[in-house]
Structure formats: structure tokens, C-alpha cells
Amino acid sequence: MKQSDYTITSLPKDVAVKIASCLEEPDLYSLACCSRDCRELFGSDYLWEPLFKERWPHLYEAALEDPDFKGWRRFYMKQHEKMRDQAASVVKFLKQCSQFESLEVTDYLRAIECLKSMQFGFKDVQMLLFKPKMNVLLNLVGLHFCLDCLQVPALQVVEALQSSKISNRQVCVKWYRGRLFHRMQDEYRSRCVSLEDLVTAKEKEVLWVLGRELLRAKIFILS
User: Fold this and answer.
1) Could you report the per-residue pLDDT of 56-88, keeping only the tens digit for each?
2) What are the distances in angstroms from CA 84 to CA 120, 126, 144, 175?
3) Fewest CB atoms within 10 Å of the CB: 14, 141, 178, 187?
4) Are the beta carbons of 108 and 219 closer than 8 angstroms?
């Protein structure tokens, strides 16, 4: 056999599956579309069932009972497309609220509640909101949702930010302290922080402010 004839499908099946199990979902999906042999290997339930269960554990039992179930790969992609459409609705909502220059904390918290009602998981946030090309306000919403609603450990969130290359992106948060209708000029506060610093103990106060609607906080994008 020529060197150019060696492919992953020519390997023993157990070895090929072991290699395939190390790949990310987009790579598996693309490879499964290459040929009939690749579809059999990279589109197998053996690979896609654990991926579905890991990403949406709360939907696993319902998927087993779905009358339209036709394999885990197809079901995974159907659910992914649904989550992608829902993420797009959050993007649209924030655009309407902020034009992506600044954002009131009331709208910020409403976006987080949207993710909660949509039953987003940590993997959904990583794949759909932790993108370098996406507006940093969306990165921030996903970050806060992971910490506050999903209770993802801070170290895992930091690792996700770093792997997505967005950990150093910054926002500026401005807020007022003291009584809502009797505030003085010296009660005004402003802090510029990176996404990674918000997750760590360095900026606990800012993250606390972002969870308090009555403080009238506002988030600005740094140019």
C-alpha cells in the first residue's frame, strides 16, 4: 500500500474510533460528510451519544423517547441548531438594547435570564457565545451565566476563556453607590476589567455589581 493510501478508515476500527473520540464536534461532523466509510465511522452513535449526554444531560432521557429519533449525530445537530437559533435571539435582543456600545444592567440581567429559560449548558456557551469575533458584551453575559446560574467552577471558566482567546477582552463598568435617589457625586464608581479578572477574586466587587439591578450599573465597551 502506498503511503498516500493510508487513511483513518484503513486503521483497525477500535484504533480509528479511539482517535475520532478525541476530536471536537465540528471536526467529527465535517469528516462524517466525506464518504460512506467516514460517515459510518465519524457519524456512529458510539461517538455522538456521549457527546449529546455530556452537553445536554437534562435532555438525554427525552431524546430516547423522541419518535423522530434517527441516530445520535442527527439528533445532536438538530439540538445544536436549536441552541444556535436561540443564541441568535439573545444577540438580537442585546443589539436592540445597546447597539453594542453600552448596556444597562437591567438588560444585561434579562439576557442572562433568557439563557436560563433556554436551558443553555456550559458547552452551549463555549460554542456559541465565547467567540473572539463576537461582541464582548455577549462574552460577558455567557461568563456571568456560567458562574451564577450553572455554578461552573471558576477555574473551568477561566480555561474556557483562555482556550477561546477572549480572556483579555475588557469592559468598563460604571455604577452608583448609596441611596438610589440621594446619591452624591463622590458615590460614582467606574472600573475597567478583563473577562478573566471578573472570574477570579481580583474583581469580585464588579461581578457583584453586575448582579444588582438597583445599583443602576452600565457596561461600556473599551475601544
Assistant:
1) 888 888 888 888 787 898 889 989 999 999 999
2) 10, 12, 19, 32
3) 14
4) yes
